[in-house]
Write a structure and sequence with these properties.
The protein has about 200 residues and is α+β, with helices and mostly antiparallel strands. It is built from three helices and eight strands; from the N terminus they run αββββαβββαβ. It holds the Pfam family KWL1.
Length: about 200
């Protein structure tokens, strides 16, 4: 009888262990599925003379270099981690053409942003406000454009590379509101959320 109880305890322990392994594998596969992976690459083209605006330290595509493209962005949470970049939304600025949301240009003195393709979500966040936090401060900015993660290195994208999948591309007004020293404008780790 004692041997039966020991094997029953072993059996229960094995079933419990197998259950834990199944649970771990299920959670791991869900986390893996939520990751955003590159959906392809685009080959860099040399911009025609004067066709890539390097205002705000924007990069121009390099001939032959392969750039990753994304159709997704990391999942949005109440405190989504992102990388803030500097963009001009004015006519003639480094943002290229008019904003996707309203086919208009916007003053750099207005807190406006472009979101990576996945977060832009086909325009579903157009004219919605987001709260950006960094440097011990927060600012509310309106989404007016897409920072295209699916294409780049062409005239429509000012011969600039595709955006990474975690970009909040912001006007000068956002940088000022966050209290970032002008010398440090260009790239900053931030968090953001829908306002």
């Amino acid at each position: 009888m004692k041997g039966f109880i020991i094997s029953k305890k072993k059996s229960t322990s094995i079933i419990f262990l197998v259950g834990l392994i199944i649970l771990f594998l299920t959670l791991s596969s869900q986390v893996e599925a939520s990751k955003c992976r590159p959906s392809g690459r685009v080959r860099g083209k040399k911009p025609p003379p004067g066709q890539c605006n390097t205002e705000d330290d924007s990069d121009c595509c390099v001939e032959g270099k392969m750039y990753k493209v994304y159709e997704c962005s990391p999942p949005v949470t109440g405190n989504t981690k992102a990388y803030l970049t500097l963009n001009s939304f004015e006519d003639g600025g480094d943002g290229g053409g008019p904003s996707e949301c309203d086919n208009s240009y916007h003053s750099d003195d207005t807190p406006v942003v472009a979101l990576s393709t996945g977060w832009y979500s086909g325009g579903s966040r157009c004219h919605n406000n987001i709260t950006i936090s960094a440097n011990g401060r927060s600012v509310v900015a309106m989404v007016v454009d897409e920072c295209d993660s699916t294409e780049g290195c062409d005239k429509d994208h000012d011969y600039q590379p595709p955006c990474a999948n975690n970009i909040v591309d912001a006007s000068k007004a956002v940088w000022k509101a966050l209290g970032v020293s002008r010398d440090d404008w260009g790239g900053l780790d931030i968090t953001w959320s829908d306002a």
